Protein backbone atom coordinates (compact mmCIF):
# COMPACT_ATOMS: atom_id res chain seq x y z
CA UNK A 1 0.00 0.00 0.00
CA UNK A 2 1.04 3.62 -0.29
CA UNK A 3 3.27 4.62 2.65
CA UNK A 4 1.88 7.08 5.17
CA UNK A 5 5.40 8.43 5.63
CA UNK A 6 7.10 8.20 2.21
CA UNK A 7 10.88 8.01 1.88
CA UNK A 8 11.04 10.77 -0.70
CA UNK A 9 10.07 14.41 -0.27
CA UNK A 10 7.55 15.78 -2.71
CA UNK A 11 8.93 17.89 -5.58
CA UNK A 12 8.05 21.56 -5.85
CA UNK A 13 5.40 20.89 -8.47
CA UNK A 14 3.79 17.95 -6.62
CA UNK A 15 0.41 19.59 -6.30
CA UNK A 16 0.44 20.60 -9.96
CA UNK A 17 1.09 16.97 -10.94
CA UNK A 18 -1.62 15.71 -8.60
CA UNK A 19 -4.08 18.23 -9.99
CA UNK A 20 -3.99 16.74 -13.51
CA UNK A 21 -7.52 15.59 -14.29
CA UNK A 22 -8.03 11.87 -14.94
CA UNK A 23 -8.96 10.51 -18.34
CA UNK A 24 -11.36 7.61 -18.61
CA UNK A 25 -9.32 4.71 -20.04
CA UNK A 26 -12.11 3.20 -22.05
CA UNK A 27 -14.81 5.75 -22.86
CA UNK A 28 -18.07 3.84 -22.86
CA UNK A 29 -19.04 5.54 -26.12
CA UNK A 30 -16.62 3.12 -27.78
CA UNK A 31 -18.54 0.10 -26.51
CA UNK A 32 -21.58 -1.36 -28.20
CA UNK A 33 -23.87 -0.53 -25.27
CA UNK A 34 -26.86 -2.83 -25.00
CA UNK A 35 -30.37 -1.41 -25.25
CA UNK A 36 -32.03 -2.99 -22.21
CA UNK A 37 -35.61 -2.43 -23.42
CA UNK A 38 -35.69 -5.41 -25.84
CA UNK A 39 -34.02 -7.63 -23.26
CA UNK A 40 -36.55 -6.72 -20.60
CA UNK A 41 -39.47 -7.04 -23.01
CA UNK A 42 -38.34 -10.59 -23.79
CA UNK A 43 -38.99 -11.55 -20.15
CA UNK A 44 -42.77 -11.28 -20.65
CA UNK A 45 -44.24 -14.77 -20.49
CA UNK A 46 -40.88 -16.45 -19.92
CA UNK A 47 -40.81 -20.00 -18.61
CA UNK A 48 -38.66 -21.15 -15.73
CA UNK A 49 -36.77 -24.16 -17.02
CA UNK A 50 -34.42 -24.95 -14.18
CA UNK A 51 -33.13 -24.03 -10.79
CA UNK A 52 -30.07 -24.79 -8.73
CA UNK A 53 -29.82 -24.43 -4.96
CA UNK A 54 -26.34 -23.50 -3.86
CA UNK A 55 -25.83 -24.64 -0.26
CA UNK A 56 -24.01 -22.40 2.20
CA UNK A 57 -20.19 -22.70 1.96
CA UNK A 58 -20.53 -24.80 -1.20
CA UNK A 59 -20.72 -24.14 -4.94
CA UNK A 60 -22.83 -25.61 -7.70
CA UNK A 61 -22.64 -25.48 -11.49
CA UNK A 62 -25.52 -24.61 -13.80
CA UNK A 63 -26.02 -24.34 -17.53
CA UNK A 64 -27.74 -21.52 -19.39
CA UNK A 65 -28.32 -21.78 -23.16
CA UNK A 66 -27.65 -18.67 -25.25
CA UNK A 67 -30.77 -16.53 -25.37
CA UNK A 68 -31.96 -17.58 -21.91
CA UNK A 69 -31.95 -15.56 -18.70
CA UNK A 70 -30.68 -16.52 -15.28
CA UNK A 71 -31.23 -14.97 -11.89
CA UNK A 72 -29.22 -15.24 -8.69
CA UNK A 73 -31.46 -14.60 -5.67
CA UNK A 74 -30.79 -14.21 -1.97
CA UNK A 75 -32.80 -16.75 -0.03
CA UNK A 76 -33.02 -17.27 3.73
CA UNK A 77 -30.58 -14.49 4.69
CA UNK A 78 -27.88 -12.04 3.55
CA UNK A 79 -25.25 -13.89 1.55
CA UNK A 80 -22.70 -13.04 -1.12
CA UNK A 81 -21.86 -15.27 -4.07
CA UNK A 82 -18.75 -15.76 -6.19
CA UNK A 83 -19.63 -16.31 -9.85
CA UNK A 84 -17.52 -17.98 -12.55
CA UNK A 85 -18.66 -18.26 -16.18
CA UNK A 86 -17.32 -20.38 -19.02
CA UNK A 87 -18.34 -21.01 -22.61
CA UNK A 88 -20.33 -24.22 -22.14
CA UNK A 89 -18.34 -25.99 -24.86
CA UNK A 90 -14.90 -24.41 -24.35
CA UNK A 91 -13.58 -23.86 -20.84
CA UNK A 92 -10.73 -21.75 -22.25
CA UNK A 93 -13.26 -19.01 -22.88
CA UNK A 94 -13.94 -17.76 -19.40
CA UNK A 95 -14.94 -14.59 -17.64
CA UNK A 96 -12.29 -11.85 -17.66
CA UNK A 97 -12.76 -9.87 -14.47
CA UNK A 98 -9.90 -7.44 -15.13
CA UNK A 99 -11.05 -6.30 -18.57
CA UNK A 100 -14.67 -6.15 -17.43
CA UNK A 101 -13.48 -3.83 -14.64
CA UNK A 102 -11.53 -1.71 -17.12
CA UNK A 103 -14.56 -1.40 -19.37
CA UNK A 104 -17.39 -0.96 -16.85
CA UNK A 105 -15.78 0.14 -13.60
CA UNK A 106 -15.26 -1.50 -10.24
CA UNK A 107 -18.85 -2.65 -9.67
CA UNK A 108 -21.42 -3.94 -12.16
CA UNK A 109 -25.14 -3.29 -12.54
CA UNK A 110 -27.86 -3.26 -15.18
CA UNK A 111 -26.58 -2.79 -18.72
CA UNK A 112 -23.05 -3.93 -17.89
CA UNK A 113 -21.61 -7.07 -19.42
CA UNK A 114 -19.40 -9.91 -18.33
CA UNK A 115 -16.63 -10.18 -20.96
CA UNK A 116 -14.66 -13.27 -21.87
CA UNK A 117 -10.89 -13.70 -21.86
CA UNK A 118 -8.51 -13.27 -24.80
CA UNK A 119 -8.61 -14.14 -27.62
CA UNK A 120 -12.40 -14.28 -27.46
CA UNK A 121 -13.20 -11.00 -25.67
CA UNK A 122 -16.91 -10.83 -26.31
CA UNK A 123 -19.93 -10.42 -24.04
CA UNK A 124 -20.75 -13.66 -22.23
CA UNK A 125 -23.69 -12.26 -20.29
CA UNK A 126 -25.54 -8.95 -20.00
CA UNK A 127 -26.92 -7.81 -16.65
CA UNK A 128 -30.59 -7.10 -17.29
CA UNK A 129 -31.83 -6.31 -13.77
CA UNK A 130 -30.34 -5.54 -10.36
CA UNK A 131 -32.62 -5.09 -7.35
CA UNK A 132 -29.74 -3.39 -5.48
CA UNK A 133 -29.10 -0.74 -8.14
CA UNK A 134 -30.42 1.90 -5.71
CA UNK A 135 -27.34 1.47 -3.47
CA UNK A 136 -24.88 3.36 -5.65
CA UNK A 137 -21.67 4.33 -3.84
CA UNK A 138 -21.86 4.84 -0.08
CA UNK A 139 -19.90 7.33 2.04
CA UNK A 140 -16.99 4.87 2.34
CA UNK A 141 -16.74 4.41 -1.41
CA UNK A 142 -18.37 0.99 -1.17
CA UNK A 143 -20.68 -0.46 -3.81
CA UNK A 144 -22.28 -3.81 -4.67
CA UNK A 145 -21.37 -6.56 -7.19
CA UNK A 146 -17.64 -5.98 -7.55
CA UNK A 147 -15.05 -7.06 -10.06
CA UNK A 148 -12.16 -5.76 -7.92
CA UNK A 149 -11.80 -8.57 -5.43
CA UNK A 150 -10.83 -12.02 -6.51
CA UNK A 151 -12.30 -15.07 -4.78
CA UNK A 152 -11.40 -16.13 -1.27
CA UNK A 153 -8.88 -18.94 -1.58
CA UNK A 154 -7.01 -21.34 0.68
CA UNK A 155 -3.58 -20.22 -0.49
CA UNK A 156 -4.02 -16.64 0.65
CA UNK A 157 -5.59 -17.96 3.82
CA UNK A 158 -2.56 -20.19 4.36
CA UNK A 159 -0.23 -17.20 3.95
CA UNK A 160 -2.14 -14.88 6.24
CA UNK A 161 -2.96 -17.47 8.90
CA UNK A 162 0.56 -18.93 9.00
CA UNK A 163 -0.19 -22.36 7.70
CA UNK A 164 -3.95 -22.66 8.10
CA UNK A 165 -5.83 -25.25 6.06
CA UNK A 166 -9.41 -24.32 5.16
CA UNK A 167 -11.31 -26.16 2.44
CA UNK A 168 -14.48 -24.15 1.85
CA UNK A 169 -13.07 -20.96 0.38
CA UNK A 170 -14.88 -20.00 -2.82
CA UNK A 171 -11.85 -21.10 -4.84
CA UNK A 172 -12.12 -24.65 -3.50
CA UNK A 173 -15.91 -24.68 -3.67
CA UNK A 174 -15.78 -23.66 -7.34
CA UNK A 175 -13.06 -26.23 -8.02
CA UNK A 176 -15.10 -29.10 -6.55
CA UNK A 177 -18.26 -27.99 -8.35
CA UNK A 178 -16.51 -27.78 -11.73
CA UNK A 179 -14.85 -31.16 -11.19
CA UNK A 180 -18.16 -32.77 -10.27
CA UNK A 181 -19.92 -31.32 -13.33
CA UNK A 182 -17.23 -31.97 -15.93
CA UNK A 183 -15.56 -35.13 -14.66
CA UNK A 184 -12.22 -33.34 -14.58
CA UNK A 185 -9.88 -34.09 -11.71
CA UNK A 186 -9.66 -31.51 -8.95
CA UNK A 187 -6.22 -30.47 -10.20
CA UNK A 188 -7.51 -30.02 -13.75
CA UNK A 189 -10.64 -28.21 -12.66
CA UNK A 190 -8.69 -25.85 -10.41
CA UNK A 191 -6.86 -24.41 -13.40
CA UNK A 192 -10.14 -23.30 -14.94
CA UNK A 193 -11.36 -21.44 -11.85
CA UNK A 194 -10.86 -17.72 -12.30
CA UNK A 195 -11.48 -14.32 -10.75
CA UNK A 196 -15.14 -13.78 -10.09
CA UNK A 197 -18.01 -11.39 -10.16
CA UNK A 198 -18.67 -10.90 -6.45
CA UNK A 199 -22.46 -10.99 -6.50
CA UNK A 200 -24.10 -8.97 -3.68
CA UNK A 201 -20.71 -8.26 -2.09
CA UNK A 202 -20.21 -4.66 -0.90
CA UNK A 203 -16.63 -3.55 -1.35
CA UNK A 204 -14.35 -0.68 -2.17
CA UNK A 205 -10.89 0.72 -1.64
CA UNK A 206 -10.02 2.82 1.41
CA UNK A 207 -9.38 6.40 0.42
CA UNK A 208 -6.24 6.82 2.53
CA UNK A 209 -4.35 3.60 1.83
CA UNK A 210 -6.14 2.15 -1.21
CA UNK A 211 -6.75 -1.13 0.61
CA UNK A 212 -9.51 -3.45 -0.49
CA UNK A 213 -12.33 -3.46 2.03
CA UNK A 214 -15.62 -5.27 2.49
CA UNK A 215 -18.60 -4.47 4.64
CA UNK A 216 -21.91 -6.10 5.48
CA UNK A 217 -23.79 -6.55 2.22
CA UNK A 218 -27.06 -4.60 1.91
CA UNK A 219 -28.61 -7.69 0.26
CA UNK A 220 -31.83 -8.95 1.81
CA UNK A 221 -33.98 -12.01 1.11
CA UNK A 222 -35.58 -11.61 -2.30
CA UNK A 223 -32.87 -9.39 -3.79
CA UNK A 224 -31.59 -10.63 -7.12
CA UNK A 225 -29.16 -10.02 -9.96
CA UNK A 226 -30.43 -11.04 -13.40
CA UNK A 227 -28.42 -11.91 -16.51
CA UNK A 228 -29.05 -12.70 -20.16
CA UNK A 229 -26.80 -15.40 -21.62
CA UNK A 230 -25.19 -14.07 -24.80
CA UNK A 231 -23.54 -17.44 -25.51
CA UNK A 232 -24.07 -20.97 -24.17
CA UNK A 233 -22.85 -20.77 -20.60
CA UNK A 234 -21.58 -23.04 -17.89
CA UNK A 235 -21.73 -21.15 -14.61
CA UNK A 236 -20.53 -21.92 -11.12
CA UNK A 237 -21.68 -20.04 -8.05
CA UNK A 238 -20.18 -20.31 -4.57
CA UNK A 239 -22.08 -19.22 -1.46
CA UNK A 240 -19.03 -17.62 0.17
CA UNK A 241 -18.02 -18.75 3.67
CA UNK A 242 -17.93 -15.03 4.47
CA UNK A 243 -21.75 -14.98 4.51
CA UNK A 244 -22.69 -11.31 4.16
CA UNK A 245 -18.96 -10.47 4.51
CA UNK A 246 -19.51 -8.26 7.56
CA UNK A 247 -16.60 -9.78 9.48
CA UNK A 248 -14.36 -12.44 8.01
CA UNK A 249 -14.13 -15.20 5.46
CA UNK A 250 -11.97 -18.30 5.02
CA UNK A 251 -13.50 -19.85 8.12
CA UNK A 252 -16.79 -21.30 9.33
CA UNK A 253 -17.32 -18.39 11.74
CA UNK A 254 -19.74 -16.30 9.66
CA UNK A 255 -23.48 -16.97 9.37
CA UNK A 256 -24.02 -18.35 5.86
CA UNK A 257 -27.07 -18.94 3.71
CA UNK A 258 -27.84 -20.66 0.43
CA UNK A 259 -28.27 -18.88 -2.89
CA UNK A 260 -30.74 -19.71 -5.64
CA UNK A 261 -30.01 -19.77 -9.37
CA UNK A 262 -33.01 -19.88 -11.71
CA UNK A 263 -32.95 -20.22 -15.50
CA UNK A 264 -35.71 -18.80 -17.69
CA UNK A 265 -36.51 -19.40 -21.37
CA UNK A 266 -38.17 -16.46 -23.12
CA UNK A 267 -41.00 -16.96 -25.60
CA UNK A 268 -38.74 -15.38 -28.22
CA UNK A 269 -35.24 -13.89 -28.09
CA UNK A 270 -34.95 -10.12 -27.58
CA UNK A 271 -35.86 -8.25 -30.76
CA UNK A 272 -32.81 -7.91 -33.00
CA UNK A 273 -30.57 -10.02 -30.76
CA UNK A 274 -27.87 -12.24 -32.22
CA UNK A 275 -25.32 -14.18 -30.22
CA UNK A 276 -22.07 -12.18 -30.42
CA UNK A 277 -19.17 -13.60 -32.48
CA UNK A 278 -15.70 -13.94 -31.01
CA UNK A 279 -13.47 -10.87 -31.12
CA UNK A 280 -12.46 -9.59 -34.54
CA UNK A 281 -8.73 -9.09 -33.93
CA UNK A 282 -6.81 -11.17 -36.51
CA UNK A 283 -4.25 -12.47 -33.97
CA UNK A 284 -1.29 -11.87 -36.27
CA UNK A 285 0.37 -9.66 -33.59
CA UNK A 286 2.27 -7.71 -36.22
CA UNK A 287 3.95 -10.65 -37.97
ZN1 LIG B 1 -15.58 -16.41 -0.87
From TrEMBL:
Q: Which domain of life is it from?
A: Bacteria
Q: Where is the DUF1989 domain?
A: 53-234
- InterPro entries reported for this sequence: DUF1989
| Pfam families on file | DUF1989
- Designated name of the protein: DUF1989 domain-containing protein
Q: Which organism is it from?
A: Gemmobacter aquatilis
Q: What is the lineage of its organism?
A: Bacteria, Pseudomonadati, Pseudomonadota, Alphaproteobacteria, Rhodobacterales
